Amino acid sequence: MTTIVGEQQQATDARERVQQERLSERERLKVSRFDSVTSLFLALILFLGAFVSMMFIVWLLSGEPKVKPIEPIIENPPGRGENPEGFERDFEPPGAEEVEDLQEPTLADTIEAVTDAVSSVAASLTTSNTNATASTQGTGKGDSRPPGPLGEGDDIIGRWERWELTFNAKGKKDYARQLDHYKIQLAAFGGGGPNVIEMASNLSGSPKKSVNQDPKSEERLYFSWKLSNPLMQFDQQLLAAAGIAYSGRNVIRFIPKDLENQLAQMEKEYCERKGKKFPHDIAKTIFESNPDGNGFSFSIVSQRYRVGR
């Protein structure tokens, strides 16, 4: 009997030892907090690595985006040659009837003009509570040549005649920033001096002077002030800062080809939305420059159409 009891006790002790060993082994193989955190970080690293690799492959395959330039809108009427004899579109000095208007005024005239200008600006500010506003209208860079064979393209009003650009400026600095943003150059020519065009750029910083010794080679559209306004003084000050004399000379603004194409595209889309025929039905298009984010942009504020169209 004693032997049987002893064997049973031994068997029980053996089972308990095995059970204890199993519990110890299970406890040893249990996932710890360190293992959980390590696995999480490893999974995140693998995910980020795969994501970055995919983005790198997409970047390699996509390449750099190419900006499609605006196609110029050609409005030249058919049948007209390039500068036929006797009808070149050259820069001409002021005529005899214009010299009187370009001469320096007397002291009495200057005091009277300054008084009138201050009164008109004050009245404008009081009435509309807006900043200084001025507009330009294109002159001179048109097609002054006689038409060739009659065609549908002959019956249009040229851009130099139908376009008007309006600037809203808080002061000289703001006005100069607008001209630089559009890459518009101020220029002066005529006045009895050499037959050259003196131009000023980088107007909002340190104005820089450049000279075109061959005015006949200039093909950009240019604008001059339609009416006397406060911004004319800014033009004179900016030209003087670039070392360009303006007294008794024609002061104009050259607009770059890219801007001209952009304005022409805007005009075409605006006209066609109104159900009109471009450019034949247009008599006048007025563009206005306004702040746009960190820069400026033109918008069409008015478009008039020819009578009977």
TrEMBL record:
Keywords tagged on the record: Membrane, Transmembrane, Transmembrane helix
Region feature (Disordered): 74-95, 125-155
Membrane-crossing segments per the record: 40-61
Basic and acidic residues: bias regions: 82-92
Keyword hit for Transmembrane: yes
Residue ranges with Low complexity bias: 125-136
The protein's name in its UniProt record: Uncharacterized protein
